[in-house]
Amino acid sequence: MRKLKLAIEGYLFLLPWLIGTAVFMLYPLGNSLYMSFTKVSVATDGSGLQYDFIGWDNFKYAFIYDNEFPVDMFLFVREMVLTVPITVIFALLIAIMLNQQFRGRMFFRTLFFLPVIFATGQVLTALFDQGQAKLPFADQYHIADMLYEVLPVNIAEVLVELIGKFVIILWFSGIQIILFLAAFQTIPASVYEAARIDGVTPWESFWKITFPSTVPFVFLNLVYTLVDQTASPFNPILKFISTNMADPETGFGYASALGWLYSVIILIPIILVLLAAKLQNKGRR
Predict the structure, then answer these.
(1) How far apart are CA 89 and CA 162, in angstroms?
(2) Which of 42, 211, 218, 264 has fewest C-beta within 10 Å?
(3) What are 198-206's contacts with CB under 8 Å, separation 24+?
(4) Last residue within a domain, chosen from 170, 187, 204
(5) Distances in Å between the alpha carbon of 29 and those of 34, 58, 200, 263, 271?
(6) Which stretch is the leader sequence (predicted)?
């Protein structure tokens, strides 16, 4: 009975989002799914768009005949595998520092959150074009050349790309920092006081008290960061979909198929993270 009550309460909190999704998103999603199985073109009689059903041809074309989409998708996933953990780890470290008692703590918390407000796609693109996203010492010490000398080419390429926009990647950590700070507030101060009385060191306190209590928020931040990366202005897949949408040879039909393929591929790591979080939660009980 208690589980049912908690489930109902949870769905009530989700109700505004569910209503909004049903009203504003169900029809566009359904229409997009239908167009992915069609060849969309402009009718010659001026009556609007013409839909010619072609089945799975758009999806087959994406993997068999299109030379760009599989390559761009692989490169994006490869980069995301490194970008997401780096962002979450950086957010955790910064949150630990911002959780300490020191003068100007609120100022620094605001400072790390400001990029979330101001860093629009146009701002990030402009900074990237001006070379402001690189680590300052990367060119000075020829870090890229060193990586190519000591690492395989495929791994070195990814690391060089990350260094090329490392500052901007860290700008995406504002929300994650706030979530980690919220996680730290759930730990009673009395627990740390008891640990100090027992002679527990700060290092032991982190691994035995702070981190175990923060693990659920690590999974939450992994999911958030994965979703956030899918809408990045540097995402080559979104640009590729937009290009095909405006191309009269491919049009809305093929672009819709690419969008659905991209969504399914992105859902795979998200589902894996959620399953890992569920297993971890069961293990704690």
Answers:
(1) 15
(2) 264
(3) 206/96
(4) 170
(5) 9, 17, 54, 12, 20
(6) none
77 and 158 housed in the same domain: no
pLDDT in tens, 11-48: 888 888 889 888 888 888 888 888 889 888 776 666 67
Range of the domain at 232: 66-104+172-284
Q: What pLDDT, in 10s, does the model give residues 173-196?
A: 888 888 898 888 888 888 888 888
Rounded to whole angstroms, the Cα distance separating 256 from 30 reads 11
Using a CB cutoff of 8 Å and minimum separation of 24, what contacts does 205-208 make? 206/96
Range of weakest confidence among 56-65, 167-176, 233-242? 167-176
Question: Which residue would you say has higher pLDDT here, 55 or 117?
Answer: 55
Q: Could you give the number of structural domains in the chain?
A: 2
For the record, the structure tokens of 221 come out as: 């931040």
133 and 238, same domain (yes or no): no
280 lies in the same domain as 189: yes
How do residues 119-139 score in pLDDT, each as one tens digit? 665 666 666 566 555 556 556
Beta strands in the chain (DSSP E): 38-42, 49-53
- How many Å apart are CA 199 and CA 193, to the nearest integer? 10
Q: Are the C-beta atoms of residues 63 and 262 closer than 8 Å to each other?
A: no
Shared-domain flag, residues 90 and 219? yes
Residues 150 and 256 in one domain: no
Instruction: Kindly state the tokens that stand for 25.
Output: 């998103």
Please report the sign of the dihedral spanned by the C-alpha atoms of residue 159, residue 161, residue 167, residue 168.
negative
DSSP annotation of 151? S
- Assess if residue 53 is contained within a domain: no
